[in-house]
Amino acid sequence: MSPRIFFPTLLIAAMLSLVWGLMSGALPLTTAEVWRALLGNGDEVAREVLWQLRMPRVLAGFACGGLLALSGVLLQALLRNPLADPYILGISSGAAVGALVAMLLGASLVFVQLSSLTGAMLAILAVFGLGFRQGERNIYRLLLTGVVLASGCGALISLLLTLASGEQVKGMLFWLMGDLSHPQGLPLAWIVLLAVGAGAVIFSSGLDVLAGGLSRAASLGVAVGRWQIALYFSAAVLTVAALQLGGSIGFVGLMIPHAVRLLGVSAHRWLIPLSVLLGGSFLVLADTLARTLWSPLQLPVGVFTALLGVPVLLWLLSRRR
Known about the structure:
Shape: globular
CATH architecture: Orthogonal Bundle
Order of helices and strands: HHHHHHHHHHHHHH
Distance between the termini: 15 Å
Structural class: mainly alpha
Number of domains: 1
């Protein structure tokens, strides 16, 4: 099927997922009630629920899914590996250590977010400084550094969970498995998504060349070193923005770009927007299920990204010849 057909299909699916997210919850709303509330009319309770609770959450879910999917596309182009994941470079692990330290100390939500941002930035500096040391741009050293850093941070995370009290552990686990109930920096996340996404589409031809191999790209006049640095920092910024919105949500950045490729799309000028639309819709769907299936109990959205994503990806793999 042509990407020109996939795009309007996924665009409609994205809008339907947003509408369903606005309708679903402890207080069910009909399509008419949602429409009236969006226009500022109708029941006051419905307007409060829509604008104060559900609208920020569905927008955060879509932005977070789009950020992770786009980060996965860029990292898979950087590492030339379809199994690359936004968290493979240790950024998520660094952010998790920062967030869990703040939670252990009893800090407020704002300081938890600031601490996670600090941990992510320190991880970025460590991986880049060690992976691209002395001007030598070795992508395999970059990858190995990220894996080693993630392993070390994983040990620290286990230690922090052991030291935490029972009440603190629940909040820590929600952050580690993803939680969109308190999104922070939503306008900035959308700006990052649109800006990086637009730039990636504009320079998509360079990504196609890089996907063919570094030697071929260099022979065609592509500044490989600059592209590697730009892709690394772009993916890092996207991942940090997603972490600030929903914590550590796995599987989206790995599964979504791979699923789009399995549908027959390989050119990055189509792969990028389709991955963003599918990633955003997928995470809104997962988050809506996480907060409605066992209502009023809310489950971590990361659980549903795996439960929904694994069978879909296995089905796509089984259909590919």
